[in-house]
Amino acid sequence: MGTTGMAIIIAYVVVMLGIGYWAMRKTKSVGDFFLGGRQIGPWMSAFAYGTTYFSAVLFIGYAGKLGWGFGLHTMWIVVGNAFIGTLAAWWILAAPDP
Prior knowledge:
By secondary structure, the protein is an all-alpha fold.
């Protein structure tokens, strides 16, 4: 790895540590840590859920397993799962506080 690559990695680590320190100073309770103080809104909640869910799907290999094992015609299940899962996140998980 050259000097430029090492400089990019060091800059990235410094920026991540800075963001972590800034976020640590804003976090005052467990609710702030886990729920963002309930201030992040439904879109961000849905995106957070979606990225976590789809990351797990990729690691488990659900889509690849279906496509490889049963053929490409099973991919409609993956598409439906993606859209229904995202809608469920918006409607259920990101519902406003009563």
